[in-house]
Each structure stands twice: as structure tokens, then as C-alpha cells.
Amino acid sequence: MIKDIVARRYARALIASIEAKENLDKTGEELKVISSVFKGSKELQYFFFNPAIPFTKKEIVLKEILKLYPFNPTLEKFIFLLLKNDWLKIIEVIYEQFIFYCDEYNNRVRAEITSAYELSDSEKKAIASKLSKYTGKDVILKVAVDPAIIGGIIAKIGSLVIDGSIINYLQVIKNRLVEEI
User: Are residues 51 and 136 in the same domain?
Assistant: First the structure.
């Protein structure tokens, strides 16, 4: 729980420190890269998250890592701040919160769509358009395929779930028949 609170504060602070708000998405992409670098390496996690390793050594290694990536200076300072304050270990949670606040700032929402079959581009656009009208925001779709739902789609936007799957309709009919008996 404290990780989430701290991550929200750092994410908001990073957004506030970015002067040109049109660079929010680019910074988000860069933050995703550095987050995945740490997530993908157990050796880096051990090195940076180990309190027995001196800060100066961590700082030197971080400088070398950042030389490999052309990040903007604000993000580099932010990453060093995380290291200094011993919060580099939650960089992935900070990234997730950062994306959430960027979406909020840009009037966007992310939706997870589950379909029984692969959707065409025109179907994706139509679904995004309808969800956009429903939410009043631009919609970024993440599409998954699950043949178990038989047909229709399931849309998840935050905590809202819109279940238009055939399997759900069958379950509703079954429940009504059982109630009548």
C-alpha cells in the first residue's frame, strides 16, 4: 500500500517537472524502457536493491546504464532521485501511475477487450468509437482473444466491466431457469 502512495507522488512529481506537456507520452515511453531494464534483470535488481552495496557504486553503474539510452535530462534526474531516495525498486509501479496520470491529463482511458475471435481493424475502431462516446474520452484498446466466451465481447475500463459475451447470456438464462424451478 505504501508503495502505491509513494508511486503516485513520484509520478505526479515527474509530470509536474515536465515543462512541455506534449512530451508526456515520450517520457512515458522512456520510463517504460528503464522500468523494463530493471524488471528484466535479476542481477540489476540484486545490485540496486541491496542495501549492502554503497550508493556511490550504484550511482556509477546507473550512469553507465543511462549512457546506453537517450533519455531526456529531466527523466535522468528523476531516476537518480529514485536511486538516492531508495525508491528505484518501485519504478514499475511509478511507471503505471505515470501512465494513468498521463491518460487523465490527455483525456484518455485504457480499455481491455476480450473477444472470442481476432477482431479486424474496423471492428476495433468501431468498439473504440462506441466506448469513446460512452466514456467521453479517447480510448486506447488492448485486445485479447478467448474462445471460451463463445461470441460477443467483454470490455473492461478501470473497474467497469461490460460483459456482452454469449457465455454470460447463457449463464443469465440458466440462472433465471433455476430460479423458476
Answer: no
| Order of strands across the sheet that contains 153-157 | 138-145, 108-115, 153-157, 160-163
95 and 17 assigned to the same domain: yes
What is the spatial distance between Cα 42 and Cα 25, in angstroms, rounded to a whole number? 28
pLDDT tens per residue, range 73-122: 999 999 999 999 999 999 999 999 999 999 999 999 999 999 999 999 99
For 77-145, give the DSSP string.
Answer: HHHHHHHHTT-GGGHHHHHHHHHHHHHHHTTEEEEEEEESSPPPHHHHHHHHHHHHHHHTSEEEEEEEE
Q: Is 155 helix (H, G, I), strand (E, B) or coil?
A: strand
Residue 97 shares a structural domain with residue 10: yes
